[in-house]
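Write out this protein's structure.
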Amino acid sequence: MSKLTSPTPRMIVEKTGTIGWMIFNNPDRLNAVSLDMWQAVPKIIADFEADPEIRTIVLTGAGDKAFVAGADISQFEAQRGDPASVVTYEDATNLAFGTIARAARPTIAMIDGYCIGGGLGIALSCDMRFAAHGSTFGIPAAKLGLAYAAAGTRRLVDVVGPAFAKEIFFTARRFTHDEALAMGLINRAFSRDALKEEVLNLCATIADNAPLTVMTAKRIVDETLKAPGNFDADMCEELIERCFHSKDYAEGRTAFMEKRKANFKGH
């Protein structure tokens, strides 16, 4: 594992083989996200996307208590105390969520502990969510008197459906990993000891597959979730054609005929 340059010490950036790791590093506050952390996310994702060796991006939290327990409310007076600073803060959070959601590489939230508020928003921006037993999930907006952003609400509805989304918002309570699994809020739940190994196995499986196919599937799945009338059929068809004309497609066919493992390069 090699450490990469991070825009802030509160975010750790590492690379292990084909995996890019983005680690929220504020364990004394349960990895609550400060403004500098929100602002660092797009830069980190861009650096990962520029590295052709990286096939998956894993987001997780430092320490052993939390993925991310929301935004750092202790900073709200200083950084959200007037209309201009509120706009700056909201722009930073929306850009962070959107950058994660739009990443070309598959993104995985590895959750061990609290995944609350903005932390759940970060996890929902990822393609998949894998959690340790004992993790808890919730959006306490109704207890704080604030409204959740429309884009974040849409991501929650896309993942769990409208009825469960309403239950999460209306009750503002914390949900167990079993409840999260039943709702489809997380893909899988594992013991704390097994979580990282399972995520590593998943990343290895994805890395063995053709990158263009994986990224095309991601983009088209995301297109199907858009509001009616906004589906970009031409763009999807272009991505599909790119796969069929790629060297990886030729390699995949040859490897299948030769009964060997394919060596995909991503072009």
